[in-house]
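In practice, a research group might receive sequence data for several interacting partners and want a quick structural hypothesis before committing to experiments. The following worked case mirrors that situation: the sequences arrive first, and a predicted assembly follows.
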Amino acid sequence: MSSARAGIVVFPGSNCDHDAFYVFKNILNVDTKFLWHKEGSIEDRNIVVLPGGFSYGDYLRCGAISRFSNIMDDIVKFANKGGIVIGICNGFQVLCEIGLLPGVLLKNKNLKFICDTVSLKVENNKSIFTGEYKIKEDISIPIAHGEGNYFCDDETLADLLSNNQIMFRYNNNPNGSIYDIAGIQNLGRNVLGMMPHPERASDKRLGNVDGLRLLKGVTESVL
Amino acid sequence: MYIAKIIITLRSSILDPQGKTVEHSLKSLGYDKIEGTRMGKYIELKINADSKSEAESIADKACEKLLANPVMEDYEFEISKDGEN
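A structural hypothesis for the assembly, expressed as tokens:
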């Protein structure tokens, strides 16, 4: 068992929390706990996952209300000290709303909720998140979102590019994201946000383990 | 008591596919003089403030902090005394 201790944050309306928990606990054999959003701290966790779902019903804007949950102050502190935070789908939206990642997720360009498995290109494999992939490797990961259309202004996009913060790009852009962006990391390289669901591509019985390498890499990066 | 009537819209630089879809529908109904449609949100706040300027400042902070996301949205509001309109 590695020294990784994963914490899966649970908001009212999270619905991928159990999938993430299952992968860390049962597939990667990591000490894993749920963290209720009302708690004031992430306890002794050294990997924090903000899972997919519809926190607070996506009211107002996706992720806008969850960012004010009790636990978020501690997560921001943890992230600013270099702690590993992964936001998947709704979790990515929360990370953008709270400002740990730049930009915002808009409604899909075709206004439809898209549930599909899409092909992604790994744009940067020099990170704790993507070290197990080859550069420019094509991987298949499921998506399930209505608001996954990543947007930022031109200046921010230039920064993302020059700082190698773009981790994954869609090979066939499903939602209108600027520069086909599917996932980005922060400048400190310890916070990852992505719309596709690596935890849904992690159990070989489901026929696709392209996402497992990401979560495994993160787990092994914790000494 | 004051009422803040807040309108939040996508910034003009951002494509508004909902607005576009509605616009197409209006055009197909023959409203060919309609040349633009933007969709947004309307939020009404009841504010227990002592003055109009205090109510304004509260509404402004609420928009900045929670109600609008400046990366993608613009907001504007009007303040009136409850019961005046």
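Before designing any experiment, note the following. The longest strand of chain B covers residues 2-10. The mean pLDDT of chain B is 94.
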